[in-house]
From TrEMBL:
Active-site residues, as the UniProt record annotates them: E169, E352
A single GO molecular function term of this UniProt record: beta-glucosidase activity
Enzyme type, top EC level: hydrolase
Family to which this protein belongs: Belongs to the glycosyl hydrolase 1 family.
Species the sequence originates in: Shewanella woodyi (strain ATCC 51908 / MS32)
UniProt keyword Hydrolase, yes or no: yes
Listed name of the protein: Beta-glucosidase
Length: 446
C-alpha cells in the first residue's frame, strides 16, 4: 500500500520539507546522566502510568543514537524534529552540563553531515524536578529560568540548529499537567492550569527574545496542538458550546501570541481562577515568530450542558485509532483554513501528525495498513488546505519510532518504526516504507 498525491500537488515537490519527530523523555533513556524531571516523579507515583512503566530507559536512544540517525537517514527525510532535555544540558546551579550538551552537539553534527535539517524543541514537558519543587510553571520565576536555558544552549549550538521551537504544546503542559492532573506534575485546579499557561507563554516570549538575538538565521517559533471542537448537532446551543470549548482549549494558546489578549471566555472565569498577568506581559508574549508549528491528531465533539459551559461527548460508531481518538481528516483542513483566516500567521509547519495503531510484529515486519491510510487521508487534507491558500512549508510524522507514550506508557505505538522494548531492535513498519517511498518520489518544480 502506497501514499500518493496528485502530481501537481505542492506536497509532491522536493521544496516541501518532510520529517519525523521525537521528544527527549520519550526516547532517550539515560536517566543517570541527567537531572530527574517531573515525569520521573509522576512515573514513580502509583497509578499514574497505565502500564506502571517509566522513562528511565525508553528507546535507549542515548546509547543507540548513531544507529537511529542511520534509521532516520534511511527514511530519506529532509528534517528531524527532536527535543532537548533541559535537565541534561543545564545543572541545578544553572551552569551548562558539558557532557549533556556534547551529546546534542554530536547528534546535530551527525545530522548536518547527512544534510538533515534539525528542528529543535527546547521544552517537550520534561521540567527538572528541582524547578517544580519551587512551584514549577505556577512560579513566574520558571519563565526566566527557561529564558536563561534558551540563552545558554542557543549560544552554544549556533548554526547547527535549522529551527528552534520554544515549547511543545503548552496546552498539554498546563491543562493536562496542572488542571486535569493526567500528566505531570499531576495537579488539578482551574487556577493552576490557567496560571501555568500564562507563565509558559511568557517563557516562550522571553525565550524568543534571546533566540532571535543568538540564532537570527534559525527559524524560531513555537509548537501548538489543536483539537478542533465540533458540536454534536446543528443546534445553536451545541454550536455555542463547541465555540466556547474551542476558546478554552485551542484559542487560549494562540490568541495571546498573535492578538495580545486571551479569548473572551476568560471573562467568564471566577476571579480566583483568572491568571495573574503583569503589566507588559502581553508585549513579551507577542514576539514576532518565524514559523508556527501545528500538531494535529483528532477532533472532539461538544454538547450544550446547563451546569457547565460545554460537555465533551464520545460519539459511538466513528472510526478511531488504537488510543481512541477519532479519525477525521476534514478537521485538519478546516483547522488550517480557520487559523489562516483568524490570525496574521507566519509560515506553518505541521510539526506532528500521526496515529497509534495496534501493531503486530510478524516475521520481522509490521503491516500497518491502517496507519498508511491515516497518513494518506491527512496528507490529502493538508493538500486541500494548501490549495485553499494556506502557507504550509513542512510536515513531520509523529513519530520516528514507538516510544514512551506518556500516561499510556509503552502500550500505545505511534512509530513509523517498531521498537521491541526487550531487545531495542528497530523494524521499519509498512507505514515507514510508504512514507519513505512517497518522499523519495517527489520531483523538483521549476
Ligand atoms: C502529542 O500530544 C505530543 O506532543 C507527543 O509527545 C505525543 O507522543 C503525541 O502527541 C501522541 O500523543 O485527549 O482524548 O481528548 C498530543 C496531545 C492529543 C492532546 C489529542 C489532546 C485530544 C484527544 N493531544 N488530545 S483526547
Amino acid at each position: 500500500m502506497k501514499i500518493s498525491l496528485p502530481e501537481a500537488s505542492r506536497l509532491n515537490q522536493k521544496e516541501f520539507t518532510y520529517g519525523v519527530a521525537t521528544a527527549s523523555f520519550q526516547i532517550e533513556g539515560g536517566y543517570d546522566s541527567r537531572l530527574p524531571c517531573i515525569w520521573d516523579t509522576f512515573c514513580s507515583t502509583q497509578g499514574k502510568i497505565r502500564d506502571g512503566s517509566d522513562g528511565k530507559s525508553a528507546c535507549e536512544h542515548l546509547k543507540l543514537w548513531k544507529e537511529d540517525i542511520e534509521l532516520i537517514d534511511s527514511l530519506n527525510v529532509d528534517a528531524y524534529r527532536l527535543s532537548l532535555s533541559w535537565g541534561r544540558v543545564i545543572n541545578q546551579d544553572g551552569s551548562v552540563n558539558s557532557e549533556g550538551i556534547d551529546f546534542y552537539i554530536q547528534l546535530l553534527d551527525a545530522l548536518k553531515r547527512k544534510k538533515i535539517k534539525a528542528f529543535v524543541t527546547l521544552y517537550h514537558w520534561d521540567l527538572p524536578q528541582h524547578i517544580e519543587d519551587n512551584g514549577g510553571w505556577l512560579n513566574r520565576e520558571t519563565a526566566f529560568l527557561f529564558q536563561d536555558y534558551a540563552d545558554k544552549v542557543s549560544q552554544i549550538l549556533g548554526d547547527r540548529v535549522y529551527s528552534y521551537a520554544t515549547l511543545n504544546e503548552p496546552f498539554c503542559s498546563s491543562y493536562l499537567g496542572y488542571e486535569a492532573g493526567i500528566h505531570a506534575p499531576g495537579l488539578a485546579q482551574v487556577s493552576y492550569g490557567r496560571q501555568a499557561a500564562h507563565h509558559l507563554l511568557l517563557a516562550h516570549g522571553l525565550a524568543m527574545q534571546v533566540l532571535q538575538k543568538n540564532a537570527p538565521h534559525s527559524l524560531n517559533g513555537i509548537v501548538l496542538n489543536f483539537t478542533p471542537c465540533y458540536p454534536v448537532s446543528d443546534s445553536l446551543q451545541d454550536k455555542k458550546a463547541a465555540a466556547l470549548a474551542d476558546e478554552y482549549f485551542n484559542q487560549w494558546y494562540i490568541k495571546p501570541l498573535f492578538d495580545g489578549r486571551y479569548p473572551d471566555i476568560m471573562g467568564s472565569l471566577e476571579d480566583k481562577d483568572k491568571p495573574v498577568i503583569l503589566a507588559g506581559d502581553m508585549d513579551i508574549l507577542t514576539q514576532p515568530l518565524d514559523f508556527l508549528g501545528v500538531n494535529f491528531y483528532t477532533r472532539n465533539r461538544y454538547q450544550h450542558c446547563p451546569e457547565q459551559r460545554f460537555k465533551e461527548i464520545t460519539m459511538p460508531d466513528v472510526p478511531r485509532t488504537d488510543i481512541g481518538w477519532e479519525i477525521y481528516p476534514q478537521a485538519f483542513t478546516d483547522l488550517l483554513i480557520s487559523l489562516d483566516k483568524s490570525y496574521q500567521l507566519p509560515p506553518i509547519y505541521i510539526t506532528e501528525n500521526g496515529a497509534a495503531m495496534d501493531d503486530k510484529l510478524i516475521a520481522q515486519s509490521v503491516n500497518d495498513l491502517d496507519r498508511v491510510q491515516y497518513y494518506q487521508g491527512h496528507l490529502e487534507a493538508l493538500d486541500k488546505a494548501i490549495e485553499a491558500g494556506v502557507n504550509i512549508q513542512g510536515y513531520f510524522a509523529w513519530s520516528l519510532m514507538d516510544n514512551f507514550e506518556w500516561a499510556e506508557g509503552y502500550l500505545k505505538r505511534f512509530g513509523l518504526v517498531y521498537v521491541d522494548y526487550n531487545t531495542q531492535v528497530r523494524t521499519i513498519k509498512a507505514s515507514g516504507l510508504a512514507y519513505r517511498d512517497f518522499i523519495t518520489a517527489r520531483h523538483t518544480d521549476n
